[in-house]
Amino acid sequence: MSNKDAPEEGKKSEIDPNKYGYDLYPERKGRVEKTLGGVLSGYQGLEEYDRAKCERRVEKCFMQSKLVKLMASALKASGCEIDMSRHIVCEQCHPRVSGGFDPETNQIVICQNNSKNDGIVQGILVHEMIHMFDYCGNKIDFKNIDHLACTEIRAANLTHCSLTSAILQGDASLVSFANKHKECVKSKAIMSIIAVRDVTAVEAAAAVDRVFDKCYNDMEPIGRRVKGYEDSTRAYAEGFLYGYI
């Protein structure tokens, strides 16, 4: 990421952690406290082991995943080159989240205690790299709920709402998937907003509705909705058309 996008050194955060999801990422604010229950349950006590495994999975994704390589190339082409040692961190998180993007530090967080296979890590990386792309290239303001809704719509639209995930989320069935993709995207975006903002489902849905059409039709930088391996292969092959590969 270019220096112009890095946070100012020593700048005090103005984000209320109770309203912007930082309680889900305790290492972000140095609030990790070991408890007997956490150690006995396996949630705590293996942090360094989990971190090392997580970092190896991240490296593997950067070497092998076509979508991760495409997103990294798109970020670089936009003047926002990603440095794994600076912009991606593996951390211990709340049990109900698997990853996130921190605009204050311009970092992608992989929740090492919850993301324990290559597929999950790849999905998190691509999803959060879309947020990073929007933060750097589109200058979105994560404190603005409409901006947040837009980037969540884009991430869900491009990579999340495959047939499998839509069925598991309850937004589609085998016979209705063709007509349910938009509902899946809306549902995922609303859930993502609620997870990190102190807003109601009604408020989150209203924000999604306000920006949905414009953001749903914006498929940069992947260029297509990825619903399977063939789509990711085609997206990577087409990257040179846009100067990404």
Task: Please explain how this structure is put together.
By secondary structure, the chain is mostly helical. The protein has one domain. The chain is 51% helix and 5% strand. It is built from 10 helices and 3 strands, in the order H-H-H-H-E-E-E-H-H-H-H-H-H. It has helices at residues 36-41, 47-64, 66-77, 84-87, 118-137, 145-160, 163-169, 181-196, 201-216, 229-237; strands spanning 88-91, 99-102, 107-111. A 3-stranded mixed β-sheet has the order 1-3-2. A hairpin with a 4-residue loop joins strand 2 and strand 3 (107-111). Helix 2 packs across helix 3, helix 3 (66-77) runs parallel beside helix 5 (118-137) and helix 5 packs across helix 6. The longest helix is centred in the middle third of the chain and has 20 residues, at 118-137. Mean pLDDT is 82; it is low at 1-15 and 164-172. Belongs to the peptidase M76 family. Its EC number is 3.4.24.-. Residues 1-21 are annotated as: Disordered. Residues 1-17 have a biased composition (Basic and acidic residues). It comes from Nesidiocoris tenuis.
Short description:
By secondary structure, the protein is mainly α. The chain has 10 helices and 3 strands; from the N terminus they run H-H-H-H-E-E-E-H-H-H-H-H-H.
Largest sheet: 3 strands, mixed
Q: Enumerate the strands of the largest sheet in spatial order, edge to edge or round the barrel.
A: 1-3-2
How many H/I helical runs? 10
Roughly how many Å is the radius of gyration?
18 Å
Broad shape:
globular
Number of domains: 1
Termini gap = 18 Å
